[in-house]
Amino acid sequence: MMTLSNRNRRLTYLLLLAFTFVVASFAYADDNKEWKEWEKDRREALKERAEQEREWEKERREAYREAEKDRREATKARRRYGDYDNDRYGRDDRYDRGGRYESSRNSARRMGQAQGYRDGYEKGQEDYRKNRAADIARHDRYRDADHGYKDEYGDKFSYRDGYREGFQNGYDEGYVRFVRSRY
Question: In the chain, where are the structural domains located?
Answer without folding.
Answer: 22-181
